[in-house]
Structure formats: structure tokens, C-alpha cells
């Protein structure tokens, strides 16, 4: 099944403790973003990668991926949602996967399972079970303890029929969402299906992660 991918790399990395874009942090001599893109680069079914970055970092990303012809660069917006939408406007395949550039460890196995499930539904996301107890806290006081077995941690890549996620983004222009699948849940009468994610598919976010 042919598809196109959007990879987000235009964030401000404000929580990372770094003074530069966290996806440029090197692991074993290679920037995080190179690992985050690898499965898509290697997958013959991925016909185009829209790499979303800041304009002032464009040349740096072009240097990293100077021999990768399937990558096309998109300038990001002020929010994650705007960045995704900027790239979505360029997508012309029936299916699209959206991935966080700061998640370098997802595997081709997860990618293949997402694509297989996407053949059966309009939207599918990888999730991972919670191991900690989760409480709702207001003003430093616990107001509720949630049922852990009903809670999941959401990962990326998230996979969609393009027409569905484009419609959701069009409808969500005046509301700020941090997760693409949540638009579909709230704005469209479309079920979001889940598959098991991968324990190692973590997102580099805080200083301790680096």
C-alpha cells in the first residue's frame, strides 16, 4: 500500500534543556531526526516524506539528508497543528502517516502493522499500556484516581486515510490540538482504532531524556 509521511521537526524544544533543536541531538554520531526518518526512507511503499522544519534550520536538514530524494521540506507553523496542516496540503496520496521527529526508535515492524491495520479502517494509532497509577490533581490536591486499565499512552506514527485527516484539520483551524487523532475523535463521526505500540518508541522531551 503506497503512502506518504509527514515528520515533524519544527518544535522549539523548550523542555529539553538544550539550546538547539532536540531532533539534532546526536546518538552515536547521528542526529535523532535521521533515526526517526529511517524506516520511512527504507520503505519502498513510502513515496514521499514531508519533513517539517523551521526556515532558519532548513539548510541543516538538507545537509543531513542531502542524498535522500524522497524528502520534501515544508516550513512549519507556530504550533504543531499548523505544521501538520502545512504538510497535509501537499500530500496527494490516499494514505498518510504522521510522526514526531523526536521518536527515533520505532521499528519497521510497527510500521508494517500500522499499514496492515490501515487497510481495514480510516485511522489507526499505536498505544502502550500505563504502568503507573494516574491521578487527577487540582491545586495540589488529588480529586480522582483513574482506572489504569482503561488508559493508554499514545505514540506515533499515526496513520490515516488522507481525506479524513485533512477534513479534521480543516474543521479544527480555530482550536489547538496536540494530537492528530483527537481531532477525528471530537470532530468527525469516525472511529480511531488502536494497535499495540512499542515500549522503546519513546519521545525525547525532557533534559533527563538526553
What coarse outline follows from CA principal-axis ratios?
globular
Assembly context of the chains: single chain
> In the CATH classification, which architecture applies?
Alpha-Beta Complex
Structural class: alpha/beta
Provide the residue-averaged pLDDT: 93
What CATH calls the topology is: Spore Coat Polysaccharide Biosynthesis Protein SpsA, Chain A
Helix content: 25-40%
* Integer-rounded radius of gyration: 17 Å
What is the makeup of the main sheet?
8 strands, mixed
Count up the domains. Answer: 1
Q: Helix and strand succession? A: EEEHEHEHEHEEEEEHHE
CATH class label: Alpha Beta
Count of discrete alpha- or pi-helical segments spanning 4 or more residues: 6
Number of strands: 12
The proportion of strand residues reads 25-35%
Distance linking N and C termini = 35 Å
Low-confidence stretches: none
- Superfamily at the CATH H level? Spore Coat Polysaccharide Biosynthesis Protein SpsA, Chain A
Amino acid at each position: 500500500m503506497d503512502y506518504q509521511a509527514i515528520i515533524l521537526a519544527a518544535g522549539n524544544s523548550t523542555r529539553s534543556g538544550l539550546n538547539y533543536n532536540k531532533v539534532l541531538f546526536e546518538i552515536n554520531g547521528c542526529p535523532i531526526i535521521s533515526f526517526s526518518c529511517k524506516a520511512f526512507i527504507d520503505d519502498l511503499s513510502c513515496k514521499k516524506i514531508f519533513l517539517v522544519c523551521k526556515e532558519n534550520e532548513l539548510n541543516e536538514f538538507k545537509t543531513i539528508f542531502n542524498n535522500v530524494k524522497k524528502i520534501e521540506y515544508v516550513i512549519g507553523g507556530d504550533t504543531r497543528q499548523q505544521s501538520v496542516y502545512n504538510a497535509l496540503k501537499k500530500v496527494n496520496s490516499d494514505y498518510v502517516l504522521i510522526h514526531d521527529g523526536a521518536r527515533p526508535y520505532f521499528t519497521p515492524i510497527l510500521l508494517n502493522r500500522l499499514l496492515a491495520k490501515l487497510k481495514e479502517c480510516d485511522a489507526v494509532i499505536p498505544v502502550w499500556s500505563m504502568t503507573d497509577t494516574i491521578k487527577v490533581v487540582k491545586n495540589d490536591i488529588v480529586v480522582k484516581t483513574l482506572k489504569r486499565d482503561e488508559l493508554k499512552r499514545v505514540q506515533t506514527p499515526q496513520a490515516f486515510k488522507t481525506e479524513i485527516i485533512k477534513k479534521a484539520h480543516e474543521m479544527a483551524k480555530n482550536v489547538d490540538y496536540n494530537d492528530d487523532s483527537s481531532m477525528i475523535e471530537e470532530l468527525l463521526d469516525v472511529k480511531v482504532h488502536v494497535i499495540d505500540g512499542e515500549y522503546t518508541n519513546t519521545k525525547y522531551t525532557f533534559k533527563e531524556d538526553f
